[in-house]
Amino acid sequence: MTSKTKVVTVRLTDEQYTFFNDWQKKLQAQTGIEVPMGAVIRRALEGFMHFASSQNRQESPDLREAQDRLQASKEYVTEYNQKMRSDKMTIDNAEYKKGFAEHYEEGRPVWDIGKPQAPFIEIADRIKGPILDVGCGSGSVAVFFAEKGNTVTGIDLVDKAIERARAKAAAKGLNVSFQVKDAFTLIESDWRFPSIIDSGLFHVFARDLERQRLYVEALAHVIEPGGTLYLLAAKDQPEGSIALSGYSHDELVDAFSEGWKFESIKEFMAEVTPEIAEKHPDVEWSTWFAVIKRRV
Prior knowledge:
Keywords: Methyltransferase, S-adenosyl-L-methionine, Transferase. One of its GO terms (molecular function) is methyltransferase activity. The protein is of the alpha/beta class. The protein has helices spanning about 15-30, 35-45, 65-70, 75-90, 95-105, 120, 140-145, 160-170, 210-220, 250-255, 275-280; strands at about 130-135, 150-155, 175-180, 195-200, 225-235, 260-270, 285-295. It is about 40% helix and about 15% strand. Strands 3-2-1-4-5-7-6 form a 7-stranded mixed beta sheet. Strand 2 (about 150-155), helix 8 (about 160-170) and strand 3 form a beta-alpha-beta unit. The radius of gyration is 22 Å and the shape is globular.
């Protein structure tokens, strides 16, 4: 189902502009994060924006009411501060967590093919433990490398994914450490790994430069000097494609420009679940596979 976005044009009086501009400055001072004016107004209007019933006409929201309500809310700055810090510093927020969790509630996610993507299998003997699998999902990649005798830790934001991963490892008699963990909190961890695998998490942040930066910093924090990141990320897609859009070659290289060195980067067609392949036989799931060393 295609979602539709309504665009509302808001006209501010000088007094209203001054009011919202002051709040914008206060929020930025509180959070240390650039807060767009639109975000301030949108929060103020939340819950009482009214649109005309006609599809071709929209009523302007009552900014005076919004202004009064915002001014009366003593908890607003604290609440907004906490929300902005959560959204910017971690993946653990309503939008991201709900989106991932829904895939597991509905059954098998489209990316869960029950085994690693082909490039991981091709160079499996090069990937030595201890291994950290970031965004491990239901554990297929982590279990594969554990079966080869490696010590593996897998983390994922979604509880149900980790439940499935633990069950998968237990069924094979493997001791794999699967943990429900926000990848962005790795920046605070004392873990260190010579090998890190990311099979399909990084491309989630393809249009979010701030999260890209924070995520790469988190990986740099837990990888050993000279360690290797094995990264699978979606390639940028032509407009109109249903495949997940990711990075151009240059965008991917730029994201790891500080303190990293690409050993290799290649394009390949990722495998998807049979259900998705049958439903969309003409879609090309173009993906990058990169081997990236952390400089000593």
